[in-house]
Amino acid sequence: MSLEANTPIYSPLRHYSAYAKVNLGLRVLGHREDGYHELETIFQEISVRDVLTIAVLPEGITIGCSDPVIPVDEGNLAWRAADLLRRSAGIGLGCNIQIKKNIPTGAGLGGGSSDAAATLKALNREWGLHWPLERLLPLAAELGSDVPFFLRGGCALGRGRGEILQPLAIPQGWWGVLVYPNLTISTRWVYENANFDLTKSLKNSKFYSLTGFADKLSDWDIHLVNDLEPVVFNKYPYLKKLVDGFKRAGAFYARMSGSGSAIFGLFLDKSDALSALAKTESSYTTFLFHPVAGPAL
Ligand code: C5P
Questions:
Q1: pLDDT confidence of 296, banded at 50, 70, 90?
Q2: Minimal CA–CA distance to 273: which of 154, 178, 155?
Q3: Torsions phi, psi for 212 (to 5 deg)
Q4: Which among 43, 165, 187, 198 is the best mutation to test ligand 1's pocket, defined by most ligand atoms within 8 Å of the CB?
Q5: Host H or E run for residue 51
Q6: I want to staple 242 with a disulfide (CB 3.0 to 4.6 A). Which of 38, 100, 141, 263 is the partner?
Q7: 201 confidence band (pLDDT: 50, 70, 90)
Q8: pLDDT surpasses 50 at 94
């Protein structure tokens, strides 16, 4: 909802970036009693972003979004984030959140989760709470598995549902090309239809971890995996072809992000990334990106 001209605004309008992520690797380790899957994943924040413009209002939570398909009521994770923070803090204020949406949805890029995390961070400041990160983390975990990662950003290893985080320092000197093949994939569908071989001893071993291969770029293609790829590539073989195309174009690493549908290729040289971008099917949505560094470790 857009703000009406006579709405009293209690703060200057401020802009907040909500960056996307890619999963550089993702292993599914088992089924959990809560119906989720136990994961090990490397999250990397990237420079593709939504922009949130926030105004503090006397009451009510209202959202406007540049993408008309996205809900602007409690179906929007940013709305739920604002509501949860307001209830948890006993705040008697409201807000208007305008979302300029650039991150494709249903793409495995965490756009909704990032908007929710940016909302928590922004309102923590705008509502004058100034809670430390540790106090926001449980609220983020309640909103969704990927939301806690976006509170800090950068690069992190995620365990549990993805909410148990450990900051990672990995090489950052590369460029990425992201392709959104205009296809929305439901995360729930992927997990329900995947046939995870959870008996493989190496993968289940506590001695095997994605982190063991994270700090050397030449190891990524050999050792990092995304266990969600087989089910998605089986249904949509053209996504696998995008991965292969990136490798032919000189990518040192290419994968599906999260549960898809976005595919990314990583290049050491910006010029190689740009020429791979130019070769991508023109009806797809594409982005050139670089990794976003988190706060100092
Ligand atoms: O956490 P989020 O709401 O994004 O997850 C969407 C769905 O994906 C869950 O309802 C669940 O079916 C599946 N999922 C899972 N294990 C995870 C993350 C998601 O089974 N670790």
A1: confident
A2: 178
A3: -60, -20
A4: 187
A5: strand 37-57
A6: 263
A7: very low
A8: yes
The predicted-structure confidence for 43-68, as pLDDT tens digits, reads as follows 999 999 999 999 999 999 999 999 99
Burial readout 67-81 (b: 16 or more C-beta within 10 A, e: otherwise):
eeebebeeebbbbbb
Above 80 in pLDDT, residue 198? Answer: no
pLDDT at position 68, please?
96
The rounded distance, in Å, linking the Cα atoms of 222 and 247 is 13
CATH number (domain holding residue 248):
3.30.70.890
Tokens 């590539």 -> residue: 233
Q: Which residues are catalytic?
A: 21, 146
Q: Do 18 and 163 sit in the same domain of this protein?
A: yes
Distance between Cα 95 and ligand 1 center (Å): 29
State which residues form the domain around 202: 175-289
Both 233 and 205 in one domain: the answer is yes
CATH number of the CATH domain containing 127: 3.30.230.10
Give the Å distance between the CA of 3 and the centre of ligand 1: 34
